[in-house]
From TrEMBL:
Residues 239-342 form the SecDF P1 head subdomain domain. It is a multi-pass membrane protein. GO terms for biological process: intracellular protein transmembrane transport; protein targeting; protein transport by the Sec complex. GO terms for cellular component: plasma membrane. Part of the Sec protein translocase complex. Interacts with the SecYEG preprotein conducting channel. SecDF uses the proton motive force (PMF) to complete protein translocation after the ATP-dependent function of SecA. GO terms for molecular function: protein-transporting ATPase activity. This is Multifunctional fusion protein. Residues 212-231 are annotated as: Disordered. InterPro entries: SecD, SecD/SecF_arch_bac, SecD/SecF_bac, SecD_1st, SecD_SecF_C, SecD_SecF_C_bact, SecDF_P1_head, SecF_bac. Residues 346-513, 646-821 form the Protein export membrane protein SecD/SecF C-terminal domain. Belongs to the SecD/SecF family. SecF subfamily. Belongs to the SecD/SecF family. SecD subfamily. Keywords: Cell membrane, Membrane, Protein transport, Translocation, Transmembrane, Transmembrane helix, Transport. It comes from Synoicihabitans lomoniglobus. It is found in: Cell membrane. The lineage of its organism: Bacteria, Pseudomonadati, Verrucomicrobiota, Opitutia, Opitutales. The gene is secD.
Length: 847
């Protein structure tokens, strides 16, 4: 038995070790402490450098030790890598300043905890960017300003996403400003981040004068002097001047895409791919230059934002639609340059404000969310152990390993953990119990047939494999489309869900089976006790299908009607924007108390957050409220906090953080997922099953939204992910029912279709209740003990669990029945359904 399971034990151990190594360390280590601990050569000299760096920070010459070390290395020409021999740098990179930048960036990243917290839990940095006056003009109409701002926001979103920052907030403020909030980012250690974000990135291809040389000849008409910088072999830099034509031969508008690569010497460069028009023009330009100077060719300068990047020689016409930018780029510089080239700004952006922002959730809200999550997991664990005893204990172990794998994968991808994300992970774990319940219930059925424990274990597990795979593959279709077509929170949720699918399947089919195999086939247990041992019910579900179907769709219609009636009032600030009031104060108030005071007065959604200016550490309180409610904030605060000394610093309107593009991408992802599920289920099962799955999924989404709005709740950014998770839960549950119907069709060739469906529903009824109960318990704990957005998420899941279970029985199955007109022969015309038989007798358990 051990030999048979050796590969499972080894694989699980290896993945577990990888996950743990990916997660650790859990918390950030102060950079000063981390870099001291990592220096292993010439330690005394490095301690002296650290003392100099600390003095610079104390005197205000540098904002952090990180920047101070960069300054010292540049000024004193010190290669800091000599203190860290374990960190391998490219030998071909001789430039000391660039080597130090790569080294310090690496050490800074390594000092961070692997699972970074989001804006709601930890805070981050905020930029307020303003379109420069010369980029807009005073006579530009408002609608054109809005269009320009919308385009700039789209470009900013692409740039920030390319930087690897998870769940950023990017939204318009007024008609000429953009607010960007980045979780877990410190610009004191990343001062170049601001430049990457606002960089216009104008790319020109210009001719270089072939005869005149700066310093020897006068500047020819129409030319200017530009300087190229490069590295010498000894690590020093050189400068070379050229006369470069002022007017470009072609611009970056003719570049289709840019991406960083490495040459054979390990040096970074940027490859360009031109548009069709750009490829033709580039061929013309290089062909003309190649014919100059008696056929010896000449130089073509690549100029980025007015600076000469490189001036490669052109000796022949270059066709093929591609080119490259070479230079002394670090990896980060190459990535950033390619990023801004792919997303060039038409207008210049100026940073008006640069602030450090505190957590958007108050300490008590964070604590309540963590408390609710722990209670949710404890309830699920206790429920499983109470119902399935030893099997439940193994399920809890499997789920713990599942959670470890999910967190390890998220950490390896650099994911940012938010409070809604924590809730989503908790609920995903609750839903993952489904696979274990499927296994245990199948074992129960085989035991009820009189089989031995070993035979029941093998037969039950084998029968449930296809069900688990089908249920998770349909969820995988949904999550994959979220990744492909989604952006922002939609894409992030798709990644988490995809990881959860693979981890759940592995833990159910490998880990749980491994644990059961050890105790059952190892004769460590003789019985598999379960609390519920009731007989299979014989309820006629289809008898009540029509009235249940009618009532449920009536609720859906009422909910949709309320949504239509309320219109934009169902959306929170994340979707429609609002007023933002900036306040100074003498006594720092508690954000939870501020939120409670304003929401208690009927203002609606309130989002208070503290911001600190980097230059003078002045702290202000920014409060976001719905439109036209900003004027009510100050009077309410003065009456509730008379000693706080509030004064209004400013008030403005803010745009939505969930823009039209994200909403459209979420809708497209969900729509395509439904089509994909229809195709998969039709191929894997039969088209009637696909119709039932799609109708029940749409039903669950609409009912959840309708009931959410009926209870006077507003949609916020995390609700996009919540609705998508409801869709995944609904599909998962429906596929399990359909898989049992298909099995009953194969195993009972003489039964009518009505009897087949009722038998299948009765056989999965207990499983559906138990699965729903575990997810319901997790949601209930989050609902009762979690506040704010956690409460909204939990409420949505409570509704979704009930509607998902209901629709699998009273929507999906009846749709399949009615689609085939209640006739089994109609099913068999669409799919070859033949009876299968199971041999009974000796078991493989004796192996």
């Amino acid at each position: 038995m051990f030999k048979r399971n050796l590969w499972k034990i080894t694989l699980t151990a290896l993945i577990g070790a990888w996950a743990i190594s990916s997660i650790l360390p859990l918390k950030d280590t102060p950079f000063n402490d981390y870099i001291k601990s990592e220096a292993s050569a010439q330690v005394s000299e490095f301690e002296s450098l650290m003392a100099q760096a600390s003095d610079r920070v104390t005197s205000g010459q540098a904002p952090s030790v990180f920047i101070a070390l960069k300054q010292i290395g540049r000024e004193q020409r010190i290669d800091l890598s000599k203190f860290f021999p374990e960190v391998r740098l490219e030998e071909s990179l001789r430039n000391v300043e660039k080597r130090n930048a790569i080294l310090l960036d690496y050490l800074l990243q390594q000092s961070k905890g692997r699972l970074q917290l989001g804006l709601d839990l930890k805070g981050g940095v905020a930029f307020m960017l303003e379109v420069a006056d010369e980029g807009v003009g005073a006579d530009v109409p408002d609608y054109e300003r809005e269009d320009n701002l919308a385009k700039a926001i789209e470009i900013m979103s692409d740039r920030v996403n390319a930087l690897g920052v998870t769940e950023p907030i990017i939204r318009p403020v007024g008609l000429n400003r953009i607010e960007i909030q980045l979780p877990g980012v410190n610009t004191k250690d990343n001062p170049e981040l601001a430049d990457v974000i606002k960089k216009p990135a104008r790319l020109d291809f210009r001719r270089v004068h072939q005869q005149a040389v700066p310093g020897r000849d006068a500047t020819p008409p129409g030319y200017e002097v530009l300087t190229e910088e490069g590295d010498n072999k000894d690590g020093t830099t050189y400068q070379r001047d050229y006369f470069v034509k002022r007017l470009p031969e072609m611009t970056g508008e003719m570049v289709a895409t840019a991406f960083p690569t490495m040459d054979e010497y390990g040096r970074f460069k940027i490859n360009l791919r031109f548009t069709d028009e750009g490829a033709e023009r580039f061929g013309e330009v290089t062909g003309a230059i190649a014919q100059e100077n008696q056929g010896q060719g000449g130089l073509l300068a690549i100029v980025l934002d007015g600076r000469l990047s490189s001036a490669p020689r052109v000796s022949t016409r270059i066709n093929g639609g591609s080119a490259e930018i070479t230079g002394t780029f670090t990896q980060r510089e190459a990535i950033d340059l390619a990023n801004v080239l792919n997303n060039p700004l038409d207008v210049e952006l100026v940073i008006q404000e640069q602030n450090e922002i505190g957590p958007s959730l108050a300490a008590d809200a964070i604590a309540s969310g963590e408390y609710a999550s722990m209670i949710a997991i404890a309830l699920v664990a206790a429920f499983m152990i109470a119902i399935y005893t030893i099997g439940g204990l193994f399920a809890v172990i499997s789920l713990s390993i599942n959670l470890l794998f999910v967190l390890g994968a998220l950490a390896s991808l650099g994911a940012t953990i938010t409070m809604p994300g924590i809730a989503g992970i908790v609920l995903t774990v609750g839903m993952a119990v489904d696979s274990n319940i499927l296994i245990f219930e199948r074992i129960r059925e085989e035991l009820n047939l009189g089989k031995s424990l070993k035979a029941a274990f093998l037969a039950g597990h084998d029968k449930v494999v296809s069900t688990i795979l089908d249920a998770n593959i349909t969820t995988l279709i949904t999550s994959s489309l979220m990744i492909i077509f989604g952006t922002g929170p939609v894409k992030g949720f798709g990644v988490t869900l995809t990881i959860g699918v693979f981890s759940t399947v592995f833990c159910a089919l490998v880990v749980t089976k491994l644990l059961l195999d050890i105790v059952i086939n190892g004769d460590l247990i003789k019985k598999f006790p379960m609390l519920i041992r009731s007989k299979v019910p014989t309820f006629d579900y289809l008898k009540y299908a029509r009235p249940a179907f009618a009532v449920s769709w009536l609720i859906v219609i009422v909910g949709v009607g309320v949504v239509a009636y309320k219109g934009h009032r169902i959306y929170g600030i994340d979707f429609v924007g609002g007023d933002e009031v900036s306040l100074s104060f003498n006594e720092r108030p508690d954000t939870a108390a501020v939120r409670d005071a304003l929401e208690g007065a009927g203002i609606g959604e309130v989002n208070p957050v503290f911001q600190s200016d980097f230059n003078d550490d002045t702290e202000i309180l920014k409060i976001q409220v719905p439109f036209e409610e900003g004027t009510k904030v100050m009077p309410l605060l003065l009456s509730n906090f008379p000693n706080a000394g509030f004064e209004v610093v400013g008030q403005t309107t803010i745009g939505p953080s969930i823009g039209a593009e994200i909403q459209w991408n979420a809708f497209m992802s969900l729509s395509l997922a439904i089509v994909g599920i229809l195709i998969y289920v039709a191929f894997r099962f039969e088209f009637g099953f696909g119709v039932g799955a799609v109708v029940s999924t749409i039903h669950d989404i609409l009912m959840t939204i309708g009931i959410f709005v009926l209870f006077d709740r507003q949609f916020t950014a995390p609700m996009v992910a919540a609705i998508l998770l409801i869709a995944g839960y609904s599909i998962n549950d429906t596929i399990v029912v359909f898989d049992r119907i298909r099995e009953e069709l194969n195993g009972n060739p003489n039964l009518k279709l009505r009897e087949v469906i009722n038998n299948a529903l009765n056989n999965v009824f207990v499983r559906s209740l138990l699965t729903s109960a575990t997810t319901f318990l997790a949601s209930l704990a989050l609902f009762l003990f979690g506040g704010g957005v956690i409460n909204d998420l939990a409420f949505t899941f409570l509704v979704g669990v009930i509607t998902g279970t209901f629709s699998s029985i009273f929507i999906a199955s009846p749709i399949f029945f009615w689609y085939h007109k209640g006739d089994r022969k109609h099913v068999e015309k669409h799919q070859d359904v033949k009876p299968t038989y199971e041999w009974t007798g000796s078991s493989r358990a004796s192996e």
